[in-house]
Write a structure and sequence with these properties.
Layout: H1 3-12, H2 17-29, E1 46-48, E2 51-53, E3 57-59, H3 70-75, E4 80-86, E5 99-102, E6 107-110, H4 119-127, E7 134-139, H5 148-159, E8 165-169, H6 184-200, E9 208-212, H7 218-230, E10 235-238, E11 259-262, H8 263-279, E12 286-289, H9 295-304, E13 308-311, H10 313-318, H11 321-336, H12 342-345
Helix pairs in contact: 5-6, 8-9, 9-11
The chain binds flavin mononucleotide.
């Protein structure tokens, strides 16, 4: 990254992760991070759900939970940005410290627990923007809510008119019981209500996606593929952070409780992506996320079945210049293999 942001990276790394994140958001709000300035490559343009993405590289949920800087992140070159997770009521999340860098492994463990400003404030921020560029909204439930479905319904009502797509996050490991919503019976009943809520939001009926965990049993994976094919949802995001700890993690924080993201998540999340692409026969759009740190990583996800990809953790280690680097590496790989578009490469690795 040229200039200020690149110079700031080693300094930010000396601070506790949440402080560094807070300062990064402040700098972005103040416009201190310069835009990349390179021309968009037409080869990376792609269309999904009738929407035109300038490139398939997105910012994953969790970086901009409160929609403070979606346009600044689009300005860094992301093809789309996902804000959230947002819960109906603002909540503080778990006690600090709750984010841990594992630099040796290019990884992070977080147990934030859906700290966010709540639907009203975040929706007001989205309503105030000019709506240039694609922004999705990721919704969650309040920790102490007695009715999870009602929380997600509220998220759909609030964001359907404001977001280009909606994500039902039932895979965060940091809200007790949340991941149980991925079970066949629970997810079927939940999605029935949420698809009805989206219908009720007409004429604003953005695509509705479900974000799943990398820690599912074979039976759960088969069930979710079935649900994705039959329920009427528009896609899956694969995957959230993992509660597994792959052998060989080196950092002193490797055994903190929470969700692990970054490089160690790349192989398991890509394997799950490929499996779900196979199980859904390529008929369900998939967004691949987990451990992407290079154009080759993004390309591998696309070849495994992702129509779009997202990243977060690598940004912490490589800074905002990563986005342009990934895009030019990805375009070079597509050209090397003579793909005429991103869409032509989707699922070509199987
Ligand atoms: C600090 C942090 C906070 C996150 N918060 C959310 C969140 O609120 N909602 C969500 O769906 N995913 C959240 N995620 C998960 C990411 O969106 C992504 O699925 C995961 O980190 C894997 O991608 P990565 O390896 O590129 O980071 C968070 C990840 C991190 C590191």
């Amino acid at each position: 990254m040229p200039g200020l942001a690149g110079a700031a990276l080693p300094l930010l790394r000396l601070l506790p992760p949440e402080t560094a994140h807070h300062l990064t958001l402040r700098a972005l709000t103040l416009g201190l991070v310069p835009p990349p300035g390179s021309a968009p490559d037409p080869l990376l343009r792609t269309t999904l759900w009738g929407r035109d993405f300038p490139n398939p590289i997105g910012l994953a949920a969790g970086f901009d939970k409160n929609a403070a800087v979606p346009d600044a992140m689009l300005g860094l070159g992301f093809g789309f940005v996902e804000i959230g997770s947002v819960t109906p009521l603002a909540q503080a999340g778990n006690p600090k410290p709750r984010v841990f860098r594992i630099a040796e492994d290019g990884a992070v463990i977080n147990r934030l627990g859906f700290n966010n400003d709540g639907l009203d404030l975040v929706a007001a921020r989205l309503a105030a923007r000019s709506r240039r560029g694609i922004v999705g909204a990721n919704i969650g439930k309040n920790r102490d809510s007695p009715d999870a479905a009602a929380d997600y319904e509220a998220g759909i009502r609030a964001f359907a008119p404001l977001a280009d797509y909606l994500v039902v996050n039932i895979s965060s490991p940091n809200t007790p019981g949340l991941r149980d919503l991925q079970r066949r019976h629970e997810v079927t009943a939940l999605l029935e209500r949420l698809l009805a809520a989206r219908r009720a939001a007409a004429p604003a009926t953005p695509p509705l996606l479900v974000k799943i965990a990398p820690d599912l049993t074979v039976e759960e994976r088969a069930d979710l593929a079935d649900v994705a094919l039959t329920s009427g949802i528009d896609g899956l995001i694969i995957a959230n952070t993992t509660v597994a700890r792959p052998p060989g993690l080196r950092g002193v924080h490797a055994h903190e409780p929470g969700g692990l993201s970054g490089k160690p998540l790349f192989a398991p999340s890509t394997a799950l992506l490929a499996e779900m692409y196979r199980r859904t026969k390529g008929r369900v759009p998939l967004i691949g996320v987990g451990g992407i740190a290079s154009g080759a990583d993004a390309y591998a996800k696309i070849r495994a079945g992702a129509s779009l990809v997202q990243l977060y953790t690598a940004l912490i280690y490589q800074g905002p210049g990563l986005v342009e680097r990934i895009k030019s590496e990805l375009a070079a790989l597509l050209r090397r293999d003579r793909f005429a578009s991103v869409a032509a490469a989707v699922g070509s690795g199987g």
